[in-house]
Every structure is written in structure tokens, then in C-alpha cells.
Amino acid sequence: MAASRVFCLLAFTLLAVFFTVSCHNITQILSESPDYSSFNSYLSQTKLSDEINSRTTITVLVLNNDAMSSLAGKHPLSVIKTALSLLVLLDYYDPLKLHKISQGTTLTTTLYQTTGRAAGNAGFVNVTDLKGGKVGFGSAAPGSNLDANYTKSVKQIPYNISILEINAPIIAPGILTAPAPSNNMTGLLEKAGCKTFASMLVSSGVLKTYESTVQKGGLTVFAPSDEGFKSEGAAPDLTKLTQAEVVSLLEYHALAEYKPKGSLKINKDVISTLATNGAGKYDLTTSTSGDEVTLHTGVGPSRVADTVVDETPLVIFKVDKVLLPVELFGKSPSPAPEPVSAPSPTSASTPSPAKSPSPTKKPSPSPTKEPSPVAASPSPPAPPVDESSEGAAPSDSPTSLENSHAKNAAFHVNTPAYFTALVTLAATSLLI
Ligand SMILES: *[C@@H]1O[C@H](CO)[C@@H](O)[C@H](O)[C@H]1NC(C)=O
Ligand SMILES: *[C@@H]1O[C@H](CO)[C@@H](O)[C@H](O)[C@H]1NC(C)=O
Ligand SMILES: *[C@@H]1O[C@H](CO)[C@@H](O)[C@H](O)[C@H]1NC(C)=O
Ligand SMILES: *[C@@H]1O[C@H](CO)[C@@H](O)[C@H](O)[C@H]1NC(C)=O
Ligand SMILES: *[C@@H]1O[C@H](CO)[C@@H](O)[C@H](O)[C@H]1NC(C)=O
């Protein structure tokens, strides 16, 4: 009896671990009602959905298609993103709590506040309990009205996420008329302390590729800081690269999609870059520790230090090291020692979710965005010999994608069985 209780407890503990990472999927929840299709689509386009899924203890104020029509298609995506980020409250309000606000009125922090661009009180929302059971919402900026009223509850997962419908957007002063984001990438890069990178983009002509990629729908840039080109020992010897290789290296520093910080934080996939093609994979993986994201090339890690600009569909991050693709830097001239799989002390505390399919994923296998193994047909270069600095087992390097595919497959097959076994055991223990 006692033993079975202990076992039951153990099973539940394992279940808790099982569900820790991805506990809700806003896209999935809202897709259950066609009333929110426009709102849901904009959450995905602006990648606010990733940001919402990476957080707990939040409230999302949703607009039905009617209420959304005052924003949809009428403003640039970057403006709509700001307006929608004002509707994500960093606190949990269920209908009960809404009607129990002390003093009847309160200010609450929104996702807009976390961007660091909200002036004064503009990143906060005023929630006020009105007479007659109504609850009003408005910008906390002085002189603002209560723009919207609560209409109904959509869903609650206590105390992780609450979804409430309101009848109009909340508009903070100035957000709809925000000046068009600067499209001068070199100017932005220079100001951010990435002059070397900026000048290489110009002299190689890769800047044009970047610019046309933004036009095509989205671009993410990982710009190494000027220090990253100098840092002792870690800086690459670019003089040995051919012109074509420099182009590949620079293309390796960008993705043909808009992937802001929240999306990088929950990323589990192998990411293709602009340099990805049939001849070389030139891909990346990520790991997350708290709010910190690290990129892994297979040769060495590079920390995402700063967001230089995040204006949908363009995001530029400053990274602390040049990203070295194994396709260009993997072949070390030194005699290849057997790669040591012991993690280095520096990265031991940040296990990469992309590298070890831990049982934290949902049981249902989602379609992965990994490049198909076909891309590997022109045989890839030898595996990197210096993985020790990345603290990853050699088989986890991007050059052995087949291997990780196999692992993933095994994971997808095994997980539901593992899950079922736990549930069965837990249920059995309860019955005893
Ligand atoms: C809420 O989120 C936590 C992780 O922060 C998770 O462990 C828990 O299972 C979630 N609760 C529900 C009901 O999904
Ligand atoms: C969330 O749900 C959507 C729609 O069902 C799905 O396409 C997407 O892959 C899911 N995201 C995650 C992180 O599971
Ligand atoms: C919220 O707005 C209402 C109406 O404009 C105002 O009376 C109230 O003081 C505001 N609440 C806070 C906490 O500022
Ligand atoms: C919200 O409700 C109040 C009180 O009934 C009403 O005066 C106000 O016009 C409503 N606002 C909106 C935006 O519906
Ligand atoms: C972009 O910014 C740089 C540096 O601030 C400046 O030299 C250049 O003329 C600008 N280019 C355009 C097209 O405005």
C-alpha cells in the first residue's frame, strides 16, 4: 500500500516533468473557434504565439473577427504586433478575479512593456470593474479612455493561461502612427556595434540578398559584434576563405524567416539558414536557459546578446561570436582526436533541447521543420573534430542529421508508450 503510494507519487512527478515545457498552444486553442481566425492568424504572423506559448501566468485578451477588422489589413505588421502585444497581460485574470479587483481598478503589465519601446505608462493596461458587472480595459497612459469591455471567457488553464474576449482593441497613444521602421540595415548594424559585419555585408554584396529576403516575407539576422571578430583564439581566420566562402559565411548568419526572441526560445528544430543548399547544410540549433538563447553551429556556441531591432518582418540580433559553420570550419588540420563527449563546464548547465529529445514534448508528434535528409546526398564534410567547446556529443552535430532523425523517430514511437505506461501505473496505484 505505502509502496504503491510512493510509486504513484513517482509516476505523477514524472508526468509533471513530462509536461513542463510546452504547456499550452494558443494557436491550437483559438483554432477551435472560427470567430478568432483573424486574431489567430496575426498572432502567428507576428510570432506573438511563440511568445505566448513560452510564458505562464498570462492572460490573452482576444478580439473576434469583427473587433479585429479595425486593425486587420489597415496597418503594417509591426504596428499590429504592438497593438496585439498590449492584449497579452503578464498576470492571470480569470472572470472571477476580474470582478474582484481591489479598489475596482488596477494597472497590469503587458507584453508590450517587455519590448523596452513603450514610453511612460504605455506598456500597461488599466483594468477597471465598472458598474453593472462590466469590466473595462484601456491604456494606462494618461488621458486614455477605457477602449474595450470584457465580453466573455474563452478558456482557462489555471494558472498558466486565461483567454478572455474583449470587444475592441486597446490603443496606447502613438502606437498606430509609429514611424515606419528604419530599413537601413547597415545603419542599424553600425549603431549596434557590428561595424565589421556591416562592412563585410556591403563589400560582398550579401546585403542585397538580405534586403530582398525581407521583401519576400521575413528575415532574421545574427550579427556578430565587432569584438566577436577579434576575440582571442575564437575569431575565425577569414583571410583563408575564398570570396564564395565569405558569401556562404555571411548567408549563414541569416534566416529566411522572421524568428524573434520568443520563437528562438521555444525552438526545438534544426534551423536552415540563407546559406543552406544542396551542397552543404549550413544549419544551426539553439539552446535556451531562462531568457538566454545560445546558437550552436557544431563548431562552437555563440550567445544571442541583444535584440538590435525587432520590427516584423525583420529581426536583427547581436551575437557575441562569429557563427562558424562546420561546412567551412569543421575540418580541423590537427590530427583528429576521438571527440570527447564530456560536456564542458560552461555549457553543462544549459542542455540543448534541440539536441536531446527529452520527454517534455507533447505525445503527439508535430511535423518537424528539419530539412529532409535528401539535402545530405552530396556527402557532407567530415564531422567537426572540435565539438568539446560545445559540450555536445559528436553524433549531435548537424552533420549527422540522419542520426538525429533516427533518434527522433524512436522518440516519437516510444513517447506515447512511455506516457501510457505511466498513466496506467498511476491509475493502478490509485485503485489499490
Ligand atoms: C502549467 O505550467 C506548468 C509549467 O510552468 C506545468 O508544469 C503545468 O503542468 C501547467 N498546468 C497545466 C494545467 O497545463
Ligand atoms: C500549435 O498548434 C498548431 C495548430 O494546431 C500547430 O500547427 C503547431 O505546430 C502547434 N505548435 C506547437 C509548438 O506545438
Ligand atoms: C483606470 O481608468 C479609469 C477611467 O479612466 C480611472 O478612473 C482609474 O483611476 C484608472 N485606474 C488606475 C489604476 O489608474
Ligand atoms: C463598456 O461598458 C460601459 C458600461 O456599460 C459603456 O458605457 C461603454 O460604452 C462600453 N464600452 C465599449 C467600448 O463597449
Ligand atoms: C544608412 O546608414 C548609413 C550609416 O548611418 C549611412 O551612411 C547610409 O547613407 C544610409 N543609407 C541609406 C540608403 O540611407
Automatic annotation (TrEMBL):
Domain FAS1: 23-170, 181-323
Region of interest (Disordered), ranges: 332-403
Low complexity bias (residue ranges): 343-353
UniProt keyword annotation of Glycoprotein present: yes
Composition skew (Pro residues), residue ranges: 354-370
Signal peptide from the UniProt entry: 1-23
Cellular compartment(s): Cell membrane
Keyword set, alphabetical order: Cell membrane, Glycoprotein, GPI-anchor, Lipoprotein, Membrane, Proteoglycan, Repeat, Signal
Any one Gene Ontology cellular component term annotated for this protein: side of membrane
Record's bilayer topology term: Lipid-anchor; GPI-anchor
Gene3D superfamilies per record: FAS1 domain
One Pfam family hit: Fasciclin
Family: Belongs to the fasciclin-like AGP family.
PANTHER family in the cross-refs: FAS1 DOMAIN-CONTAINING PROTEIN, FASCICLIN-LIKE ARABINOGALACTAN PROTEIN
Function of the molecule: May be a cell surface adhesion protein.
Protein name: Fasciclin-like arabinogalactan protein 10
The organism's taxonomic lineage, starting at the top: Eukaryota, Viridiplantae, Streptophyta, Embryophyta, Tracheophyta
Gene behind the chain: LOC108814208
